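Problem 12. The chain below contains 342 residues. Write out its predicted structure in token notation.
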Amino acid sequence: MVYSSSAISAYVNFDDSYYFLKRQLIWASLGIVSMLFTMNIDYHVWRKLAKPILLATLVLLVLVLVPGLGRVVNGARRWLGFGSLYLQPSEIAKLSMVLYCATSLARSQDKINSFMKGVVPNLAVLMLVFGLILKEPDLGTALAIGATVFILLFSAGAKVTHLASLGLTGVAGVVVAILVEPYRLKRLIAFSDPWADPLNTGYHIIQSLYAIGSGGLFGVGLGRSREKFLYLPEPHTDFIFAILGEELGLIGTLAVILLFFLFAWRGYKVAISAPDVYGSLLAAGLTTMITIQALMNIAVVTASMPVTGIPLPFLSFGGSALIFTLSGVGILLNISRYVSLE
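Solution.
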């Protein structure tokens, strides 16, 4: 799907229709190696490494905001690196927050009913990471991390009243974040009526719906998308699901959704059956991290929520996202070795 959706733009911009495919094959190979590595490490090791990994992540999130160090693409400063090699610190933040919160919550099980001692310490770290990622700006990733931590707090046994107050506060915070940035407000307005501004703020959504709608039941055929001919922006990254829907139809999109559903089912089954609290929280966090991203991406592509720049796990083009997602899957697979999934 990466090749099919990117071939035209790759040929136009780089005179090589295989440009993105070749890079994705490299990232996928590195990701699989990373997955095999984490799969064969006892998951308890991550308890000792959670804090150092989080601190390193915070340093990277700060560095990416430094002019001259962070690379700016489409008005967002999200990448660190040089030449053609770039790293997205926010992708590391997704994994490091799961590792840290699972460790913290497992250690403070006797304090989880206390808002100040059980919830606030994790909330403080979340707000720090959330704020740095929001500064890039990347509201979609920040929301995904926030939702994952919320689910972890719920899984750890936090009081419903505490979670309800956090949820209301979070909604209010998101509203403020949208109102203070004009482009986010425009996206919200475009979401409610994309045809009010079809050539600007509503363009993404309209072209995405054209792609999915023209796919019908069985699609127009693999490689035969029309929207990828420079009509739909970001066809191989954030909107790859739209191209998939156009080429493989409703059958193809339902197959992908079913695969994510199966992933979530097995992941949460691992979490429920884990031999200790830490393993349970870690498995729940990793499963949620990937599932939430999939839900958000598909919701954006199908115009079920305003446009946010978040990739579709496993399918979208992107090195950092694929490597760290597969690393998380490796940890989840390691936890599954200690449980019976019959």
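Discussion. The beta strands are 70-73, 76-82, 85-87. Students who got a different answer should revisit the alignment rule from Section 12.3.
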